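Sequence in, structure out.
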Amino acid sequence: MKSIIVRMNRPRLFPRFRTWVVLVLFALAGATVTAHGAEWVETEGARLRMVLGQDAGDGRVRAMLDIDLKPGWKTYWREPGESGIPPTITVRPAASAKVAFEFPAPEHVSDPYGGFTGYAEPVRLPVMLPSGASEAEVFLGVCQQVCIPVSASFSFSGDNAPSPLHAAMVDQAFEALPSAPTEHLHVKTIERSADGQALTVETAADAAQASPRLFLAPLTESGHVFGLPELVEAKDGQAIFSVPILRRPDETTALPRFSATLVQGRASIRHDIGVE
């Protein structure tokens, strides 16, 4: 079985309102822990492990980061807001294509600082690793009354064959991801409001079945900051959301394309779409 050597960095604690840019300026005190296979590695607020699955047959291996949050602790989605730390992964040797986590449908997590988008329960983040990767460094934040940036480096060695249990766990993590848009659940359009202070997002979603929820993540860095989507109208199989534009770099910078996750009941879809 492939072994994973994990180097954990344990940083200082900071209030939630600090931005991650400030957090990473502080020196991190390193501690080294070795895990064989997919053993858990303990850190403040959570325990983590990297679980390897089957070879995908295209030069990549299916895998997942398993984040087992302790009660009362939270972690972030791909777009956590101004002061959050989205989970990221860097592999070595460097891959020719970008390597990034995929995310199951999140929730809006309330806290004394206004809340953020993420997870308040244990979560598994699937990822496609290059078959030749020898090391993967992950960076994420876990929060309670304070936010803790966690850095871990996983070194891979040995044969690539996963156990049947681990392969099944990774497959389940991929199956839990939002599906492609469907006829009855998709994002129709994103437009700028008449006053320019918000985005209006029109979706296909039957609010009579369950109240739909929308989560937006910019696909490119534009300097804009967006608030949480608010459902403002729902009728005749469609739901309309308003998304405040909290900050913009200037009037000439174009709005980004978005990865939109639309959730209704147990169903969720991901739809990448630009602003009309």
